[in-house]
Design brief:
Elements (H helix, E strand, L loop, with lengths): L2 H15 L6 E6 L2 E7 L2 H4 L6 H9 L4 H4 L2 E7 L3 H10 L3 E6 L7 H6 L3 E4 L3 H13 L1 H7 L4
Helix pairs in contact: 7-8
Length: 146
């Protein structure tokens, strides 16, 4: 696991330890992490604090040119909301830990010129597989299911 996916994975683990959904994300520019986040819907009672949204929030206000130079790393394929934010802010590259437990809007991102790399990292897959099996109701709430 490369260091940036590891940082996103560590964020996911933090979310899990806090009683939330274990999805993490980091935003990288020029080899430096400028924003870190994890899914905090449960912890904050939020409708929108997915990992990618939290990382954007924690990166702070940035000029559009900054986002265009960034790569977003996330442990799980991004949902429609997070994909929309990636497009809105002009992030040109994302690296996804895995998409076997959830396939987000990768085709949309690719169709809009975003470079999408899916690693199918075994640790990311195991983390989400275990969480979904242990907390199906919470998982379905988060992704808009049952």
């Amino acid at each position: 696991m490369d260091r940036f996916l590891r940082a996103a994975f560590d964020q996911a683990q933090t979310g899990l330890q806090e009683g939330g959904i274990p999805i993490g994300s980091v935003i990288v520019r020029g080899g430096e992490i400028i924003g870190r986040g994890h899914n905090r819907r449960v912890q904050s009672g939020s409708a929108i604090l997915h990992a990618e949204m939290d990382a954007l929030e924690n990166a702070g206000r940035q000029a559009a040119r900054v986002y265009g130079q960034c790569t977003l790393y996330t442990t799980l394929s991004p949902c429609s909301m997070c994909s929309g934010a990636i497009l809105l802010y002009g992030i040109k590259q994302i690296v996804i830990g895995e998409n076997t437990t959830f396939l987000g809007e990768e085709d949309l991102l690719r169709s809009r010129g975003v470079a999408v790399e899916v690693l199918q990292d075994p640790a990311c897959v195991a983390m989400m597989t275990s969480f979904i099996a242990d907390h199906p109701r919470l998982w379905n709430e988060d992704i808009g299911g049952v």
